[in-house]
Amino acid sequence: xxxxxxxxxxxxxxxxxxxxxxxxxxxxxxxxxxxxxxxxxxxxxxxxxxxxxxxxxxxxxxxxxxxxxxxxxxxxxxxxxxxxxxxxxxxxxxxxxxxxxxxxxxxxxxxxxxxxxxxxxxxxxxxxxxxxxxxxxxxxxxxxxxxxxxxxxxxxxxxxxxxxxxxxxxxxxxxxxxxxxxxxxxxxxxxxxxxxxxxxxxxxxxxxxxxxxxxxxxxxxxxxxxxxxxxxxxxx
Amino acid sequence: xxxxxxxxxxxxxxxxxxxxxxxxxxxxxxxxxxxxxxx
Lengths: 236, 39
Known about the structure:
The complex is a heterodimer.
Chain A (H helix, E strand, L loop, with lengths): L1 H26 L13 H28 L2 H33 L7 H22 L3 H15 L2 H11 L9 E2 L5 E2 L3 H51 L1
Antiparallel strand pairs in A: 1-2
Helix pairs in contact in A: 1-7, 2-3, 2-5, 2-7, 3-4, 3-5, 3-7, 4-5, 4-6
Chain B lengths: L4 H34 L1
């Protein structure tokens, strides 16, 4: 009951933050060069941020699993990877729809776009491999290693626009060296609100998905136990 | 709004439809498990 109240409160806070972010994002002033397309920044960048957070979470929870062997961390790692894939998909689709009016094409094999697409292969593979291994302990161990290695994707994807210059713009918010925001301050504030809203969304989705995974695991174990008991009775 | 408004609306829509679909999928499975437990 207490758990459900926390989830409900987190969900309500997330919903409120998301509505605020969308209203601010869609009412942000038009940019002199991009026009209303600048408003895509307030959904595209937070989506990408959420996927970074989720992939970082997959690595961290995987590491915690390897250290403690508690299945709770494995469930959180899997949940986080799933959320990461979902928001990478949103980032790619959003990015393609931004690319068309600015670059004239939906897709180019630019370094940032390519590494983002590759993350779908890495984490799609992570989820696929989980589905192929029946033994829960082995599944958790193998997944944790893939999740940890996969975390390298985050700095590579973030730096791709600096290391291999292509058509994708460099970071608007520079985090390395002297932190600076290369756009009008009003955009920075709206982006901050949207990023916070998507951070809350990550924690809400992670919580709900982990609850679901825990219940599914409990049911599977119950069914396995019933099968074993049935087999023992049959053998008499 | 300008000539790009359609793209902007579409991106917001796609993102929230994906999110809504994922939430609906989770809630449906959670409800299914709860009903199975009751049986």
